[in-house]
Amino acid sequence: MTTTVDHHRAPQRIVLRSGDISLSYTVQDARDLHAQLGHALRAADTPALTETEDRPGHLGLRCPHCGYLHIDEQGPIEVDVAYRWNHGITDPEWPRTVCYSYDGHGDYATDHHLCCHCHQPVTLPTGWSTEGT
After folding, report:
1. CB distance 85 to 79 below 8 Å
2. In the chain, helix, strand, coil percent, each to 5?
3. CA torsion angle 80 81 85 86 (round to 10)
4. Residues 6 and 69 both lie in one domain
5. The domain containing residue 63 runs over which residues?
6. b/e code 9-21 from CB counts within 10 Å (16+ = b)
7. What's the Cα-to-Cα distance from 72 to each of 14, 21, 116, rounded to whole Å?
8. Distance between CA atoms of 88 and 116, rounded to whole angstroms?
9. Is 106 left (phi over 0), alpha (psi -120 to 50) or beta?
10. How many helices (H) and strands (E) does the chain have?
11. In sequence order, what are the residues at sequence separation of 6 or more whose Cβ sits closer than 8 angstroms to the Cβ of residue 108?
């Protein structure tokens, strides 16, 4: 695959060529596509945390890498698209939800999650979501 940037056309375009296939994108479209593809590839290659109820009545998440139990104030780390790290919490009142506090610091869009113990990439199990406050 080859990549070229056409500096002579406005707006600038990035052209990807592989064999007989040629794709052309504006620079902004290429950036958006890159972010979406990066997120999809990370999610496809990233193991999910395992739901567990080690404490009766309180669901937790176990890391597939190190076995750490994410519960209460020690939830998985959310890394947003601006690469700001935000520690999550689990709360019995919000089942199957990892809560993050944004303290009014603008719009967050999750890029990926990390185990708060080993910092390896993880995904949330099926049926889990995130909630910002």
Report:
1. yes
2. 15, 40, 45
3. -20
4. no
5. 50-132
6. eeeebbeeeeeee
7. 46, 50, 12
8. 9
9. left
10. 1, 13
11. 78, 80, 81, 84, 86, 100, 102, 132
Helix H or strand E segment including 59: strand 58-62
pLDDT one digit per residue (tens) for the chain, 133 residues: 555 555 555 567 777 777 788 777 777 777 777 777 776 776 677 899 999 988 788 888 999 999 999 887 778 888 776 556 667 888 888 888 888 776 655 556 677 788 989 999 898 898 988 776 6
Maximum alpha-carbon separation in the chain: 65
Residues 60 and 14 in one domain: no
One domain, residues 74 and 26: no
Q: How far apart (Å, rounded) are the C-alpha atoms in residues 74 and 55?
A: 14
Give the pLDDT confidence score for residue 107 in this predicted structure: 59
